[in-house]
Design a protein that fits this description.
The protein has two domains: 69 residues, Alpha-Beta Plaits, CATH 3.30.70.20; 73 residues, Alpha-Beta Plaits, CATH 3.30.70. A hairpin with a 2-residue loop joins strand 4 and strand 5. The two termini are 26 Å apart. It is built from five helices and seven strands, in the order ααββαβαββαββ. The protein has a three-stranded antiparallel beta sheet with strand order 3-6-7. Strands 1-2 form a two-stranded antiparallel sheet. The protein has a two-stranded antiparallel ribbon with strand order 4-5. By secondary structure, it is of the alpha+beta class.
């Protein structure tokens, strides 16, 4: 069973298609531990925010849908040794790209308003709207700011510097 191409309404209207983004595993799951997954889907059913989707019979997070609240329900219901511990952050942080409305002289602070830990703040600048600044140490990588961005300017960046979901 292959991966399906997902089209958001915003991308469809702009005529764009989603590229294949790097798989974002649920908290406590590594790409290596994902090999033990049987694809039962219990984690999908347990997720209160519905951020977990099955992609190629394995769980992946889709931050364009919702955020991860680190509740641990997915780990509790998993019958296989896929989850390790109960982390409260991901091995990635968000990035705010150049398409950001505030960076293009249009007032928007949707990402700041959505961030549950206050990792995004807006700094004043002369002659234009406030500009976003990310506190990398506060960012948990939960994805709350990704779904609310009206221009898909928010993505994630792993420790290797690879950007996804932008």
């Amino acid at each position: 069973m292959g991966e399906s191409v997902s089209l958001s309404r915003r991308r469809f209207l702009r005529g764009g298609r989603e590229g294949r983004a790097q798989r974002v595993c649920p908290p406590g799951v590594t790409h290596a531990s994902l090999e033990a997954c049987t694809g039962c889907g219990r984690c999908v059913d347990a997720c209160p925010t519905h951020v977990i989707r099955m992609v190629a019979d394995r769980p992946a997070l889709d931050f364009r849908i919702a955020e991860c609240v680190f509740c641990g329900r997915c780990a509790e219901l998993c019958p296989e040794p896929v989850f390790a511990g109960r982390p409260q952050r991901f091995p990635h942080i968000v990035t705010i790209g150049e398409r950001c409305l505030a960076k293009n002289r249009t007032d928007c602070q949707a990402c700041r308003d959505a961030c549950p830990v206050g990792a995004i703040r807006f700094l004043p600048r002369s002659g234009g709207p406030f500009l976003p600044e990310l506190d990398e140490h506060a960012c948990t990588g939960c994805g709350a700011c990704i779904a609310v961005c009206p221009v898909d300017a928010v993505g994630i960046q792993g420790v290797e510097g690879e950007v996804s979901h932008v």
